[in-house]
Amino acid sequence: MEIKNITYSYHDKKNVLENVNAGIELGKITTIIGPNGSGKSTLLGIMAKHYTPRKGNVILDGKGLSAYKSKELAKKIAIVNQQNSAPNDLTVEKLVSYGRLPYKTIFSSDKDADKEAIEWVLSETNIQHKRHETIDQLSGGERQRVWIAMSLAQQTPFLFLDEPTTYLDIYYQYEVLDLINRLNKEYEMTIVMVLHDINQAIRYSDKIIVMKNGTVFVHGDPDTIITVDLMKEVYGIDMMIKNEKDTGLYTIPIGI
To answer: In the sheet where 63-64 sits, what is the strand order?
Structure first.
């Protein structure tokens, strides 16, 4: 996937994104980080064709997103949004089954394929024992796994996640991130996610896109691009950066 010269604004106001260029490597985890208002979620939305850029295009498998029909694209890209909602009395299994909609037509549906896909994602996300429970019976971490399961049921090579750890306590944050990491390693899914936590981004990413003021400030390997100068220039904060044998690279905020 290539992001080429993307410029975007809401309702013809000031540009939220300005001439954004980046590449997404197949089979890798790429994380988008940056301060609030830097355009992270907007860029992910454009990559999923939720928004139409004023200029530029996103190229997927040699074709611009604008040329894809909705169902065709839904077989390529699944997205877990930052905020998701469903009727509280909906069961886990029923919600997950909605991920199969791209494969259904008015006239036919491969019920065996649907059942196999649903069973697979319930197992992979470890929620098979919750299948008959309703959404309102789940913890925050369980709900997030259900939304990921629904996206996985689409059986797409690309999975996008917009701040998947928001509103979760630290245990469930790492549970979700470990699941995402496993899906990438075991099934070679290409994953793009937006995160706020810099250390989580470093730990779970092959590549990082750092955004500032609607542009890509830098893009590359975490060990290469995460520096004291970068943190100061992008976030306006002084940080210590450590790289130890047991923990790897991590940052420690000092102050402004």
So the answer is: 15-23, 2-9, 55-60, 63-64
